[in-house]
Design a protein that fits this description.
Blueprint: H1 7-20, E1 23-28, E2 37-45, E3 50-55, H2 59-67, E4 69-76, E5 79-90, H3 97-107, E6 118-123, E7 127-131, E8 141-144, E9 147-148
Length: 150
């Protein structure tokens, strides 16, 4: 096992992942009956919020809209970043064009070209955790209540 990274290094690694990764595993749950869902979605990070896009009628789209909360996982099994927070569905034309252009460059796809069946989902992180294997579990929280700890 590797030596645990310092908080400063872990935070820098986490920010680099948010700035450079393209896809995340998105976990949602319905408000009523039904199984939770886990799907890969592309995202864009503007330094404060993550922007996702998917079909409004997909299980993930419905769950995010109805539940208003989401959990995302970036990275790999032994180098993971977990992000939790409220999520708001937004019409594709309600965000500035520059925001969607950034998403399109990063994801290689522009949801605005897919029509009104698609929507954007803006996630405001409230909790961010990152760890590599067991030695980093104790100090994995990097953001709590929307505030970075370092």
């Amino acid at each position: 096992m590797e030596t645990p990274r310092s908080l400063t290094v872990r935070l820098a690694d986490t920010r680099a992942r948010l700035e450079n990764d393209v896809d995340a595993w998105v976990a949602t749950a319905p408000t009523g009956e039904g199984p939770p869902g886990l799907v890969p979605l592309s995202f864009d990070w503007d330094g404060a919020e993550l922007l996702l896009a998917t079909g409004r009628d997909t299980p993930a789209g419905r769950n995010m809209r109805d539940r208003g909360f989401v959990r995302l996982a970036l990275g790999e099994l032994r180098d993971v970043v977990m992000v939790e927070g409220p999520v708001v569905e937004v019409a594709l034309d309600s965000l500035p064009a520059v925001r969607w252009e950034s998403y399109a460059v990063r994801a290689g796809w522009d949801p605005r070209e897919s029509g009104p069946a698609y929507a954007g989902y803006v996630v405001t992180p409230r909790l961010v955790q990152a760890w590599r294997e067991y030695p980093e579990l104790a100090d994995r929280t990097l953001m709590r209540d929307g505030t970075w700890l370092a």
